[in-house]
Write a structure and sequence with these properties.
The protein is mostly helical. It has a single domain, classed as Flavodoxin domain (Rossmann fold). Helices cover 35% and strands 5% of the residues. The chain has two helices and two strands; from the N terminus they run H-E-E-H. Strands 1-2 form a two-stranded antiparallel ribbon. The N and C termini lie far apart (25 Å). The mean pLDDT is 87.
């Protein structure tokens, strides 16, 4: 199973050029990091939800809830 921002970015880079339609891009605002392979080309979004349970564990539950709402709306569920 692929998990984590590095693998998310690597998977994204393979499936998007092959016609995948992506949902769930997540803004990187509020994260403290130096680099990530899971950023969009413009550097403004992660290619999926990124969680930092080590340094920002208090944000995890709220981020998951908001991301689930976001992808439900994007998928029109």
């Amino acid at each position: 199973m692929l998990t984590g921002p590095r693998r998310s970015g690597m998977l994204h880079d393979v499936i998007v050029p092959n016609g995948a339609e992506m949902v769930g891009y997540w803004p990187n605002e509020g994260y403290d990091f130096l680099a990530s392979k899971a950023l969009t080309e413009d550097g403004e979004f992660f290619v999926g939800l990124s969680l930092d349970d080590e340094n920002q564990f208090t944000e995890t539950d709220e981020r998951i809830a908001k991301w689930c709402e976001q992808i439900s709306a994007e998928l029109e569920l």
